[in-house]
């Protein structure tokens, strides 16, 4: 039996792994795809202390993994098919069989939220993307739109402005949620055009997206923006499929934890973007992982 099973290899999971290794417990991290989490899609992480040059997210994620593995963390690349969680018993079902653990730390992160309009799915890979750093290069010297007003949307717009001829930044309100610094940088770019108080009403195109119809919420006016691609950055959805019905969730879909990252089930913790955190950043995910691991080790 494992002392601690960590599920998910982003900053929260890898930080939990580092703390577990230093604590000398028998822990294993399960990751279905690749480590690093959402930051591997970030071209520049500007607010992680100690890295004033803003490393790319891929490099930062790789450094977290190297650190954890160097301390002895065993990472198993396999999907968890089922999780059975109770105060008394925690069982992970993998393709290779079942594994029991005294404690589980849920670090599955979050997925991008879809815009939720007609034909969105049809255009994924044919003009609609949820990852500017993954797909931006396909739109070199072309015209694109970014939809959203948070850190992701504004940093995506900045990244794309260096590659693309023109970037429309479409936001449903006047004020952005993104940090002041990101806003300042974005607003200084000549090829970023703000389309404010506007929602995307229609995706236009046969097989490939060719335009967006947007509606100005204040004037009611519709206009068509010709674009080669659109990057959707309207928030995230916590990845809780495995624990729904077992672990208590909040109305926004995140896992409810206390200040020790403890969920409603004894010995089950949640850390990072999957939980009810007031700030979803690399630094807070790392901190969550450290707190969860430290508390879990006290139960082992
Ligand atoms: P977010 O902060 O939740 O922002 C989502 C944005 O999308 C909001 O501006 C929201 O508008 C808009 N939106 C939501 N649903 C919409 C819809 N159906 N149609 C149109 N617009 C919609 O999400 P995020 O930017 O992905 O950031 C997620 C977390 O990661 C945040 O905590 C963020 O700080 C963090 N993050 C940090 C960095 C960094 O530090 N470098 C980079 C990326 C992300 P309203 O404002 O009107 O609600």
Structural account:
This protein has 300 residues and is of the alpha/beta class. The chain has helices spanning 11-23, 57-70, 132-135, 151-161, 180-187, 282-299, and strands at residues 2-7, 27-31, 74-77, 82-85, 90-94, 97-106, 110-112, 128-129, 143-147, 166-170, 192-195, 198-204, 211-216, 222-226, 229-232, 236-238, 268-270. The mean pLDDT is 96. The termini are close together. Helix 1 runs parallel beside helix 2 (57-70). The chain contains 6 helices and 17 strands. The strands form 4 sheets. Strands 1, 2, 3, 4, 5, 6 and 17 form a 7-stranded mixed β-sheet that branches. Strands 8-15-9-10-11 form a 5-stranded parallel β-sheet, covered by helices on one side. A 3-stranded antiparallel β-sheet has the order 12-13-14, with no helix packed on it. The structure holds NADP nicotinamide-adenine-dinucleotide phosphate (NAP). NADP nicotinamide-adenine-dinucleotide phosphate binds next to helix 4.
Index terms:
300 residues, alpha/beta, 7-stranded mixed sheet, 5-stranded parallel sheet, elongated, binds NADP nicotinamide-adenine-dinucleotide phosphate
Kindly estimate the percentage of residues that lie in beta strands according to DSSP: 25-35%
Provide a count of the helices: 6
Strand count, sense and barrel status of the largest sheet are: 7 strands, mixed
List segments where confidence is low: pLDDT < 50 over at least 5 consecutive residues: none
- Alpha-carbon distance between the termini? 11 Å
- What general outline do the C-alpha atoms trace? elongated
Structural class: alpha/beta
Question: Would you list the SSEs in sequence order as H and E?
Answer: EHEHEEEEEEHEHEHEEEEEEEH
Kindly provide the radius of gyration, computed on alpha-carbon positions and rounded to a whole number of angstroms. 21 Å
Secondary structure: number of strands: 17
The average pLDDT score comes to 96
Q: In which range does the helix fraction lie?
A: 10-25%
Name the bound molecules. Answer: NADP nicotinamide-adenine-dinucleotide phosphate
């Amino acid at each position: 039996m494992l002392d601690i099973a960590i599920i998910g290899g982003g900053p929260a999971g890898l930080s939990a792994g580092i703390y577990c290794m230093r604590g000398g417990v028998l822990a294993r991290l399960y990751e279905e795809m690749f480590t690093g989490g959402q930051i591997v899609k970030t071209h520049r992480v500007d607010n992680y202390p100690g890295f004033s040059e803003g490393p790319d997210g891929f490099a930062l994620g790789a450094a977290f993994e190297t650190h954890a593995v160097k301390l002895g963390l065993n990472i198993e690349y396999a999907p968890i098919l089922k999780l059975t969680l109770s105060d008394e018993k925690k069982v992970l079902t993998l393709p290779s069989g079942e594994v029991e653990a005294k404690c589980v730390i849920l670090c599955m992160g979050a997925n991008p939220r879809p815009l939720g309009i007609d034909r969105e799915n049809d255009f994924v890979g044919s003009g609609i993307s949820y990852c500017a750093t993954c797909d931006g290069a396909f739109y070199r010297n072309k015209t694109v739109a970014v939809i959203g007003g948070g850190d992701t949307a504004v940093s995506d717009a900045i990244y794309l402005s260096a590659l693309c001829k023109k970037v429309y930044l479409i936001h449903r309100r006047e004020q952005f949620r993104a940090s002041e610094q990101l806003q300042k940088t974005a607003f200084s770019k000549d090829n970023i055009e703000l389309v404010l108080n506007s929602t995307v009403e229609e995706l236009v195109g046969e097989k490939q997206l060719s335009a967006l119809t947007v509606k100005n919420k204040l004037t009611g006016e519709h206009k068509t923006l010709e674009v080669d691609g659109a990057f959707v950055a309207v928030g995230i959805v916590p990845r809780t499929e495995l624990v729904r019905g077992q672990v208590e969730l909040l109305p926004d879909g995140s896992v409810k934890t206390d200040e020790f990252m403890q969920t409603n089930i004894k010995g089950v913790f949640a850390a990072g973007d999957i939980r009810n955190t007031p700030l979803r950043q690399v630094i807070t995910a790392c901190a969550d992982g450290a707190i969860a691991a430290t508390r879990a080790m006290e139960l082992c």
